[in-house]
Amino acid sequence: EPVIRVMAEGDDRDLVMRAVDEVVEAVAKAAA
C-alpha cells in the first residue's frame, strides 16, 4: 500500500501539529 509521509517544522509546536493534522485529513479525504 502506498504511504505518504507528512513532515513539518517550525517554532510553534501547536501550529505545526495543527497544520500537519489538516494536511493528513485532506489527503485522507482525497484518497477516500
Mean pLDDT, to the nearest integer, reads 94
Largest sheet, in brief, is: none
Distance between the termini: 14 Å
Work out the helicity level: 55-70%
Q: Multimeric state of these chains? A: single chain
Order of helices and strands: H
| Extended strand count | 0
Top keywords for this entry?
mainly alpha, 0% strand, 32 residues, elongated
Please write out the topology:
Layout: H1 13-31
Word description of this protein:
By secondary structure, the protein is mostly helical. It has one domain. It is 59% helix and 0% strand. The chain has 1 helix and no strands. The protein is elongated and about 30 Å long.
Summarize the structure.
This protein starts with 12 loop residues before the first helix and ends with a helix. It has one helix spanning 13-31. The chain is 59% helix and 0% strand.
